[in-house]
Amino acid sequence: METLPELVVEVARAHGDHPALRIKPAFRTRTWSYRQIGDLVPRVATLLGEAGVGPGDRVLIWAVPRPEWGIASLGAQWARAISVPIDVRSTDAFASKLAAQTRPKLVLASMPTLKSASRLELPVVAVESLVDRAAGAAVAPPPQTDPDGLAEIVFTSGSTGEPKGVMLSHRNIVSNSTSLQGVVPLGTETRILSILPLSHMYGMNPGFLAPLLAGAMIVYPTSLQPSVLAKTFRDQRVTMLLAVPQVLKLLDNAIQRRVDASGRHEAFERLHAIARHLPVPLRRILFWPVLNQIGGLRYVALGGAPLSPVLAQRWEEIGVPSSP
Fold first, then answer.
1. How confident is the model over 243-282, as pLDDT tens digits?
2. CATH superfamily of the 4-184 domain
3. Hey, is 32 helix, strand or coil?
4. Where are the domains positioned within the chain?
């Protein structure tokens, strides 16, 4: 397995009807199984081909993270096109600069970004409707993809200068994703909350492709508001969070505020002191009222910034180890 189309075929074969992607817009929960992903990706490729996308063409992806984002990107790569994701918070000027450099055939947007995408004066397709329409499209045959062929152009943040397009081959991306299997504890029982942008490889590899390889379920919140995240944690019984350390700090602050408001600060600190001498299963029992409010979270994978040893210890004491 050296290309993204091969990855799609493999995960569909390996994990079948196991749930892969989930989101709850409004009142209805939508779930895509691994088998459905394997069926939809070649059909998305057909629709993109009908829209004029061919081998080597660039497809700009300017959309909020959601299941259809990943399915559409994999569909573009099945069509032997090249994905060019950009951060959903990008300005019109930045998006125009990227479009001028990469000359995309069209833009894959989402409902919140449709208006901005339309200002690029390129054909725009909403990923939500694209994936829905794909169910009735023909199946594109498996492509003959060169593992060293270009799969994605990812633009850096530009924090130290002008953003640069990093050219990633299929082999680059797939090898990175497979290598994560021995680093991050992912499995078929994992429910990972995806809050990182898929326009960055941190969100794409450990947050999307590696979980798919492991047969995990990826849950997408409809908002990053704390109340929405907390409800998503509880309702979907999330077991793993992939984030930056600041998110972990915000969660810790929210827990502490609730403890302080209940007048149990001293008791809570005594529990932490006791937990330091206990194995993880007993720590989780001790702090179950806290963990139950965040779905039974078991593991946090962090990146993008240094992790405070004090913060890491606090979470380990309640039974949630972290991996920076």
1. 888 888 888 888 888 888 888 889 899 999 999 999 999 9
2. ANL, N-terminal domain (3.40.50.12780)
3. strand
4. 4-184, 244-323
- Measured CA to CA, the distance from residue 318 to residue 286 in angstroms comes to 8
The tokens of 271 are what?
């529990």
Which helix (H) or strand (E) segment is 290 a member of? Answer: helix 288-293
The residue written with tokens 């005594």 in the block is 270
Bridge partners (DSSP) of residue 251 are none
- Joined together, the tokens standing for residue 302 give 């962090």
Q: What is the mean pLDDT of each run of 10 residues along the chain (324 residues)?
A: 96 97 88 97 97 96 95 97 93 91 95 92 94 95 96 78 85 92 86 90 90 95 82 89 86 86 89 92 90 85 85 91 72
Sequence-distant (6+) residues with CB within 8 A of 169 are 147, 148, 149, 150, 151
Q: What is the C-alpha separation between 1 and 10, in angstroms, rounded?
A: 8
Give 14-36 pLDDT, tens digit per residue. Answer: 999 999 999 988 778 999 999 99
Amino acid identity of residue 172, one-letter, is N
